Records
---
Amino acid sequence: MLQKGTKLVITLACLSLAYYALAEVYRVVDENGTVQYTDNPPAGDPTVESVDLPTINTQPGLQTGKTVKKQEAKEEHAGYQSINISAPAQGTTIPPGQESIPVQVSLTPQLKDGDAIQLMFNGQPYVPASSSTSYNISSLIRGEHKIQAQIIDSEGNVIARSGITTVYVKRHSIKHNSN
């Protein structure tokens, strides 16, 4: 067992070694004009220059929410790895004259028995939940609209959600009528 004094000497020696690890960096140009960087320059070389390095850019760690273990995540989403609105694409503009938006939902794995897909349009259910992955949204008014799909289990609980897809519907207006 080491005595207190010995522990102190070893600790100070380790700290002093760490200090030398933060040593300066030097730029050296050899006789062929090749530039090298080193922390141990050749003694007496007239081409040695000390290099001032900028401070290291650091960021604080991100605060994360509750960590969900893989098993918990599987149970929470009933085994669905992904659910997406594959059509229309994010940011799609629906031109004047197009009366409906075809919506395609893709999910992995396929829908399980007892589960259903609920299509949401502007935050409200658009049609009753079903096993269909294809929908057609009609009676569109101009403006921005949000589409999302949810998977609902047999008890009516939402067990997975897609991201929100935003589409823009353009319609002629009397104010800006070109005819």
---
Amino acid sequence: MERKTVQVPNIGCDGCVRTIQNEISEIAGVKAVQGNKDTKQITVEWDAPANWQVIVQKLSEIDYAPAEAQ
């Protein structure tokens, strides 16, 4: 299993965190998504067929691109 924690500057509230969790959880292979509105960080755990590029693409599509992708 792979795991990554990243900054997401667009997180502003618990609703933002829930949106990210709901959307990213729909990707096949994603096992867990945690977020923190105060630190503006998310942690994603996944196995194949998911990969980091697919997760970043989905985050960008929903307007929550990680800082590293901007």
---
Amino acid sequence: MDSQFVIAIGAGIAVIAGIGAGVGIGIATSGFLQAIARQPEAQNKLMPWFFVGAALAESTAIYGLVVALILIGKLG
């Protein structure tokens, strides 16, 4: 198999990490809103933890993008 083909496939797979980040942030947002709907007074306690979780999920997508860009750079 050609090495450039394998690199291109690897870059495509690395970008799929963005799907997981989107699903993760969606689930976190859903749980956060449900918790606030049940106990509105807990919003100030939950808000920082929501942002920490969203940042961690988003960092997964950024790592996937960086890996894909590194692999695409090796194609040329």
---
Amino acid sequence: MNSGPGKPPDIYPSIICADWNDPAMMDRLRSLGIRCLHVDIIDGIFSPDIPLSLSDLPHIIGKQKNADIGLDFHIMSMDNEKFVRQALEFEPYQVCFHIETCLHTDRLLRIIRAAGVRCGVALNPATPVSMLEYAAEICDYVLLMLINPGFAKDRNESMVPYAYKKIQDCRRLLDKTGRHIDIELDGRVSFDNTAALIKAGGDILVAGSSSLFLAGSALEDNFRRFKAVINE
């Protein structure tokens, strides 16, 4: 993956926003050079939406492990360990869970890392980055929600107004560890705000219905437009 200081941000398409009625979707994503898919796993309690279950995943991406496109799991659950262990069966690239619902954050991060998988924690919009002070020592990345999780289909919900400040605050805190820890940004990442999100400190951009899968334009055209903004 490309993430890291001095490198252009990675684009991780959100699997729940793709049109899986298109049998060529995976091949189209491969042709664009996509190397990782963002997979939201929601239990219906942490947030009200249940867009995808782990049992659906093999039918979408195929049953083979170690595929050419990696998986970026975002666990939104009250029972983090259950879903983390299930996600690890897919041999993903990375897995994160929400720090707000985890009693044993350090232990769960170490379970993920022991499986040879990049580990991270996710923060809801209003969760202060100060909660990362000790967890950051073992994290490979942090996912920041820019909207409230589970309400992506509510087109009236926009990115929280303090998003840029929070990204900047998070970058400063993570840099105190003395190593680069990626910041992944999820929720209303669009053509209009991408440049500012990158400037604030974003390394990984979750691409959904506001960018890569924007209605009215072809996937390939949206991707070229997205890359042009990133490379400005």
